[in-house]
Design goal:
single chain; mainly alpha; 13 helices; disordered C terminus
Length: 264
């Protein structure tokens, strides 16, 4: 009993269950993806899977198209989400907490149900399903993920900095462009990451809102895995993971630049 008590008394020992969970459900799948990506069906190490991607026009074009759709979706979410987050973060907005809940509420509903509701809405309005419906569905599903990080950052912003800018003679536009917006960049970058990456990898939204007429990169990965092409599908997945890692580096640079701007 004393040994158990001594074991539990050490704070670092409480991390063991989390380390085991991460090892089994995060690290091991990533290792398997990397292994399959750099091997063929016989288990021999090869880079043929990546050469196939570069030489396969359909997969490469799908990847480029998915990036384009992701950029458009992210920009629309940013243009709609930043003003909403800014308005909600103002102290004079009495019902801001209620409005935040209303924005976050759709996130509690399964994404497939939300997408099927969008399909039903377009059908009710006699609007065609296609690229426009795809962008609309993407924005509808991921807009809360853009609003909340920006709102959270704006809420924690030091109001003394805004008052100092006003005392120094800055007009409202200058206060926003020189103080508020630079200090909110961590939330903006986080929102961009949270919205940008799922829009590339998702496949259910594209299948439902375009009647399988438009294929995104996530659909390509799914099709290869379902057809038993594990090695090629893993290579495509690894390319996606590398893109996520590169985006994460930009996130770190954005936070550093924001901190430097705040200090200046």
């Amino acid at each position: 009993m004393e040994k158990i008590t001594a074991f539990l008394s050490k704070r670092r020992n409480w991390t063991i269950p989390y380390a085991l969970f991460l090892s089994v459900f995060v690290v091991m799948p990533l290792v398997l993806i990397a292994w399959y990506a750099f091997t063929d069906v016989d288990g021999s190490v090869t880079g043929e899977n990546f050469r196939k991607f570069m030489q396969h026009p359909e997969a490469l074009n799908t990847f480029i198209y998915s990036v384009g759709i992701a950029i458009i979706t992210t920009l629309v979410c940013l243009l709609l989400g930043y003003p909403a987050a800014y308005i909600l973060s103002r102290a004079g907005f009495k019902s801001s907490n209620t409005m935040v809940v209303l924005f976050i509420l759709p996130m509690w509903i399964n994404i497939l149900i939300r997408t099927l509701a969008t399909v039903a809405l377009f059908d009710f309005l006699n609007l065609p399903l296609g690229e426009g419906a795809l962008v609309f569905g993407m924005v509808y599903n991921f807009l809360p993920f853009m609003i909340y990080p920006i709102y959270n950052t704006l809420q924690k912003m030091d109001q003394n900095l805004i008052e100092a800018a006003q005392d120094l003679g800055a007009n409202p536009v200058q206060v926003f462009t020189k103080t508020v917006f630079p200090l909110s960049m961590p939330g903006v970058v986080s929102g961009i990451m949270i919205v940008f990456m799922p829009t590339i990898s998702t496949f259910a939204i594209a299948e439902l809102l375009t009647m399988n007429n438009i294929k995104l990169f996530g659909t390509t990965i799914q099709e290869n895995i379902n057809n038993g092409m594990w090695n090629y599908g893993a290579a495509l997945s690894l390319i996606m993971l590398l893109l996520i890692g590169i985006t994460g580096l930009f996130n770190g640079d954005g936070d550093k630049a924001s901190n430097e701007g705040g200090l200046i």
